[in-house]
Backbone:
């Protein structure tokens, strides 16, 4: 089974990209399953369901969605294997950009769109820099010059990745992405595999439900803004 | 620079072989892609853009300078084969024209970027009605100014050998000049359009039907004369637009209104009977 992890900035078109690509995979008579991780609510599962494939949803609720994602990788893999999947597509929430979901042995895709601005590739961090494939969407509505500059900025952040242009409305680029998925090695098992980037510690009183502002209410790992006194 | 691209035909939406099995476009050529909505114009362009994918939905393949191009695994920074300018495109960066052009020129590795952006600005202002300054912010440009800047940038800075002009009929720029400038840079120019003027500005046009390339027409000498008439009519319309925008009242002292009406009706599609007069108070 090929284990495909899809991350990306909010509203970049992760689901559209994967729906178009899965449609092509299904033409090859492959069994594809999709799992969507989100925080409080998602409607992305409905779009995957319309493809007629097995779909699962994981809502992290009060837990960080990326930590929730790692803690559930074995269970998600087991579910997909039970469905006899050839390809498992696991779409993450795409929120704070601090964590990167990439795991060694899995195909990691980062979806990012041209509208976020040419400086954003630098800010996206490990999610972009550790991806195997970077998919750039919404190229049809910005100038050619911006497309070229944006792509260049992405290349600076991730020199190894293959970069694909993708039109999420028409599906242009889906064949290329399908080929990348089919060319990636199958995963024997997720247990014991390693995250390409550690997920940072963030255990403080607010993680545990504290709501009041102020030093007296803060416990655990707390970091303060340095207003130029240090550096 | 790229001499030519060749498209080898595949199959139409019904799975039949396309009537046109080979289409060649050389540097400096302008090819119009025409046909009704849904006839496969966009798919043809997208097949060209994805030239390095051997598998396309239509089964077409693209030869670059007579060689079938396979995917080069090492090519992380695949450059664009096709640069695009379309009606739907916008500048979304908050930056001045000069800063932006310099950034693009540096990304392209162009030597002496300061000199090259002067050239881009000159072409922009040649194409656009309202002048653009280096200090203007990109997001403040009008639709016409944006399109003019995009064409100039694609012609001079972007090194994609193929340029796609997609439905810029109402863009408010001098389209004939725009095509000439791109041709002059040795680009292969593809124009997707529903506008007869733009179709005739191309030397050749491919007619799309049911997803397939149905027919290739070369612009005839007669059609070129009709084009000249169309351009004249457009100039006249543009002149009227300008006058109306200035607040002029038009038609005064024009004794040739009837002649002009006949002129517009030249090709049998004008007003054949006088339009009923508008009655005030109806």
Residues:
């Amino acid at each position: 089974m090929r284990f495909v992890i899809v991350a990306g900035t909010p509203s970049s078109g992760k689901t559209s990209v994967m729906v178009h690509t899965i449609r092509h995979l299904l033409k090859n008579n492959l069994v594809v399953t999709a799992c969507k991780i989100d925080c409080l609510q998602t409607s992305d599962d409905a779009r995957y369901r319309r493809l007629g494939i097995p779909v699962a949803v994981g809502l992290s609720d009060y837990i960080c969605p990326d930590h929730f994602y790692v803690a559930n990788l074995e269970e998600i893999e087991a579910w997909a294997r039970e469905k006899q999947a050839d390809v498992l597509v696991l779409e993450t929430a795409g929120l704070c950009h601090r964590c990167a979901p990439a795991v060694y042995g899995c195909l990691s895709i980062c979806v990012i769109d041209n509208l976020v601005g040419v400086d954003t590739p630098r800010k996206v961090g490990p999610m972009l820099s550790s991806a195997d494939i970077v998919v750039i969407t919404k190229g049809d509505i910005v100038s050619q010059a911006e497309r070229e500059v944006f792509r260049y900025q992405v290349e600076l952040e991730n020199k190894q990745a293959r970069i694909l242009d993708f039109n999420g409305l028409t599906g242009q680029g889906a064949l290329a992405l399908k080929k990348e998925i089919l060319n990636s090695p199958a995963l024997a098992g997720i247990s014991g595999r390693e995250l390409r980037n550690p997920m940072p510690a963030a255990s403080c009183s607010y993680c545990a439900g504290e709501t009041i502002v102020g030093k007296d209410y803060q416990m655990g790992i707390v970091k303060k803004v340095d207003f130029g006194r240090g550096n | 620079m790229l001499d030519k691209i060749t498209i080898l035909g595949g199959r139409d939406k019904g799975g039949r072989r396309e009537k046109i099995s080979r289409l060649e476009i050389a540097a400096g050529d302008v090819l119009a892609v025409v046909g009704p909505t849904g006839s496969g114009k966009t798919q043809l362009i997208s097949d060209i853009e994805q030239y390095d994918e051997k598998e396309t939905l239509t089964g077409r393949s693209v030869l670059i300078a007579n060689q079938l191009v396979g995917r080069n695994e090492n090519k992380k920074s695949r450059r664009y084969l096709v640069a695009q300018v379309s009606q739907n495109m916008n500048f979304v960066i908050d930056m001045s024209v000069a800063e932006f052009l310099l950034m693009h020129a540096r990304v392209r590795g162009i030597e002496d970027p300061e000199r090259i952006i002067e050239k881009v600005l000159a072409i922009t202002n040649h194409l656009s009605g309202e002048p653009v300054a280096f200090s203007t912010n990109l997001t403040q440009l009008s639709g016409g100014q944006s399109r003019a800047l995009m064409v100039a940038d694609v012609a001079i800075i972007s090194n994609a050998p193929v340029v796609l002009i997609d439905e810029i009929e109402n863009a408010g720029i001098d389209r004939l000049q725009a095509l000439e400038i791109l041709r002059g840079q040795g680009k292969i120019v593809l124009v997707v359009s529903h506008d007869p003027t733009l179709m005739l500005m191309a030397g050749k046009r491919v007619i799309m039907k049911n997803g397939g390339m149905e027919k290739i027409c070369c612009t005839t000498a007669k059609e070129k004369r009709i084009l000249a008439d169309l351009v004249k009519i457009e100039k006249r319309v543009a002149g009227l637009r300008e006058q109306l925008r200035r607040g002029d009242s038009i038609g005064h002292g024009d004794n040739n209104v009837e002649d002009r009406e006949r002129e517009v009706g030249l090709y049998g599609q004008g007003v054949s009977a006088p339009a009923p007069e508008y009655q005030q108070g109806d």
User: Anything to note?
Assistant: The helical segments of chain A are 14-27, 44-49, 65-71, 73-82, 120-124, 126-129, 144-157, 174-183. Chain A has a mean pLDDT of 91. Residues 14-27 of chain A form the longest helix (14 residues).
